[in-house]
Amino acid sequence: MDLTPNDEQIAFQTATTDWCREHMALEAARDRPDGLWDQLEAMGLPRLTAPEANGGLALDHATEALVFAELGRFLAPIGLLSSAVANRWFAEPFDGKVALALTVEEPGPLRVLDPVDSAAVLLLQPGSVRVFDIPDRFLNQMTRQQHVTAHRPTIDLSTMQSEQGWATTAVWTEDDVRPPLHLQLLAAAYAVGCADAARDMAADYARLREQFDRPIGWFQALKHMCSDMAVRAAAARSQLYYAACALDENAADAAFHVAAAKRLADQGALDNGRANIQVHGGIGMTDEAAAHLPLKRAHLLQFIAPAAREALLA
Amino acid sequence: MDIGFSPEETHFREECRDWLHAHVPAEKRPLDAADAIGFDKAWQRRLFDAGWAGINWPTDYGGRGLSIVQQVIWLEEYAAAHAPWIGANFVGVNHGGPTLILNASEEQKAYHLPRILKGEAIWCQGFSEPGAGSDLAGIKTRGRIEGDELVINGSKIWTSFAHVADWQELVLRTEEGSLRHKGLSWAICDMHAPGITVRPIRKMSGQTEFAEVFYDDVRIPLTNVVGGLGNGWKVAMSTLSFERGTGFIADQVKQSHEIEELIAAARANGMIKDDRIAGHLAQLRAEVAAVRAMTYRNISEVVRTGQPGPEASVIRLFTSELGQRLERMAVLLMGEAIIDFAYGDDDAVGDYLRGFAATIAGGTAQIQRDIIGERLLGLPKSR
Question: Please, which residues 47-76 of chain A have a Cβ atom closer than 8 Å to chain B?
Fold first, then answer.
């Protein structure tokens, strides 16, 4: 039993953070550079746990969760989550980004996140994940209207979305609980990173901003808000590590532990996102400052593989 | 990272389970300290004789010399077997002993540690004073040096098990006129020495478990100072690091059983059909899982670096508040039966009322939040 990262994992984690800081700053989340996806691909990030035969690194979920928490801290593309899952569980490797559809029942339409330059889209279903093509146009089965696949913004300023029909041609996983849990785990890792980002932004500001001739972090009212952010982030991160190990071991209670990780991570991201804005005061409410970015990302993440009450009570 | 245990550890777990299954007393531990003392001592002696006391203490002083992971395995099995609360042995076993192991002289260790493990010596903690609670450095109890003795005057309060204790972790001011953290010493005080008066205090749950202690020219040998005269603050901080860092692992482990019992109770009385209650229970179960994950992470940190990480205070805060949420849920599931609570009842209401101590004793939740803000997040010190 060891729930601390080893030296190799820490090195990977640190390298990821350093790279993100330079090339994928949180503050620049709404304006990602062209070619960012190619760089993420070149580093192997969508294929950390994919089999070597598919050009993957065949690492364990524990390492992957650590790295994805760092990526989540910088609001990395949502497509990394679905691409990592697609590359891990399908024999035929996918060429390029796989977007992520929110779970919806047939006949749809699907809400597709991060569709820009994506070749396919992954949909989580009970007990399975399914990958569709992204068509140029589609027929909405509900309204019988023809649509051209168009990109629209989301509340998360770093993520675009589109709509599409429930495609008939698809590949899917069968008789394996792990692919859906994998997506839930990675989404939890993103949310842990998001909670971390909000905590650090708030603590940085509380050390710098002065009122009444002292840094506002001196006051217990502010200090304790920041401490609660640290507690939420720590609880979620610990459970993330445990869940990743449970999935690696294919433990009987892996589904519960991954769901618990997602629940705590989502709450941490949302609550920390809100607290961060409060700590920032007036500037926190502005479009110009970055305080709103983690909060908005948190609101998006809570709809990706949410933790069902049944899974938590099972 | 992994959550598996080695074959040796798994074997150890089976040994723990088998022994506990055969030996956990059927009778309940009495609630009042005065009634429980005999029970606590006898149970501790039984644990010692069977080799379960001081699992990760050095063998020289009666311990088993095993790893902290094995200690945690023991506590997991201990909770699963519904073995009794450590009670009056809490201070000696969980932080007095560990403080001595780290800071005391050979003579002090050789005398006291085996007595703690055998349940022969009950310890209490003399830190808080009427005028020095959260502001611990405001301690006024003083020890005047006279030849080879310390002459003690002053008072301590909220001292758990003081009226049944033999020894005390006493932090006092040994340098006259010294201020704040300077000039303090950590001494072993004989609770049977002349000049000590103990006034037990009843808690709102009905138990008389803590007390106020008065010192009137109490004389103890100077050799009872631990870690050197004037180093009391440093030694006291190591005591608190044990108390807050690893002292509550047993409680953390117990929560994983408490939540399952609550879910079973809510299923049995049908209250789980209430969406709000089901949602609340689901949330609590996720939080309890996180406590285990945090505990494992903290223990892994101890194994790797030799001490709990700075996040130990995060676990302490999270666990104590979660414990109170669990106790509140248990009371909620009882419904109006809470109205019938009377002193002496050993039920969920008693646990709920006693549970208020969790965010006050051993450093209030407010102080824990200060520590987290200042040490983990680097915010400026408020004091």
Answer: 62
Task: State the pTM of this model.
Answer: 0.96
Q: How far, rounded to the nearest angstrom, does the alpha carbon of residue B253 sit from its chain's CA centroid?
A: 14
If you average pLDDT over residues A134-162, what whole number do you get?
86
Residues of A in contact with B311 (CB under 8 A): 234
Q: List phi, psi (to 5°) of B173.
A: -90, 110
Residue A271 and residue A293: Cα distance in Å, rounded? 13
B286·A241 Cβ contact <8 A: no
Of the partner residues A5, A231, A242, the one whose CB lies closest to the CB of residue B3: A242
Give the other-Cβ count within 10 Å of A286's Cβ. Answer: 12
Assess if CATH 1.20.140.10 describes domain B248-376.
yes
> Quick check: A209 contacting B, CB < 8 Å?
no
Distance CA B152, CA B144 (A): 6
Using pLDDT thresholds of 50, 70 and 90, give the confidence band for residue A105.
Answer: confident
* Per-position b or e across B53-80, b if 16+ CB within 10 A of its CB: bbbbbeeebbbbebbbbbbbbbbbbbbb
Give the up-direction half-sphere exposure of residue B382: CA atoms within 13 A in the CB hemisphere. 20
* Mean pLDDT, rounded, of chain B: 95
- Confirm or reject contact between A137 and chain B (CB < 8 A): no
Strand pairing class (B123-126; B167-173): parallel
- What does the block give as tokens for B79? 């909770």
Q: What dihedral do alpha carbons B319, B365, A262, A109 form, nearest 10°? A: 140
- Domains along the sequence of chain A with CATH: 178-313 (1.20.140.10)
B301 classed as catalytic: no
3-state secondary structure at position A48 = coil
Which is the catalytic residue, given B243, B287, B311, B321?
A: B243
Model ipTM? 0.95
Residues of B with Cβ-Cβ distance to A203 under 8 angstroms: 377-379
Write the single-letter amino acid at A244. Answer: A
> Coil, strand or helix: which one is A58?
coil
**What is the CATH architecture of B123-231?**
Beta Barrel (2.40)
Residue A216 has pLDDT above 90, yes or no: yes
Q: Show residues of chain A in contact with B289, CB under 8 Å.
A: 239, 242, 256-257, 260
Q: Give mean pLDDT, residues A216-238.
A: 98
Nearest CA in chain A to B276: A309
Of the candidates A5, A217, A239, the beta carbon closest to that of B380 is on: A217
B7-117 — its CATH code? Answer: 1.10.540.10
The confidence band for A169, taking pLDDT boundaries of 50, 70 and 90, is: confident
Ranges of each domain in chain B: 7-117, 123-231, 248-376
Contacts of A252 in chain B (CB under 8 A): none
Q: Does the distance separating the beta carbons of A62 and B289 come in below 8 Å?
A: no
Closest of B152, B124, B173, B9 to residue B77, by C-alpha: B9
Please give the Cα distance from B69 to A1 (Å, whole number): 8
Cβ separation A228–B369 shorter than 8 A: yes
Convert the pLDDT of each residue in B156-184 to its tens digit. Answer: 999 999 999 999 999 999 999 999 999 99
Q: Looking at the partner chain, which of A224, A246, A260 has a beta carbon nearest the beta carbon of B3?
A: A246
* Residues ≥6 apart with Cβ < 8 Å to A53: none
CA distance B221 to B143: 11
For residues B279 and B266, what is the distance between their CA atoms, to the nearest angstrom?
Answer: 12
Residues 6+ apart with CB under 8 A from A33: A23
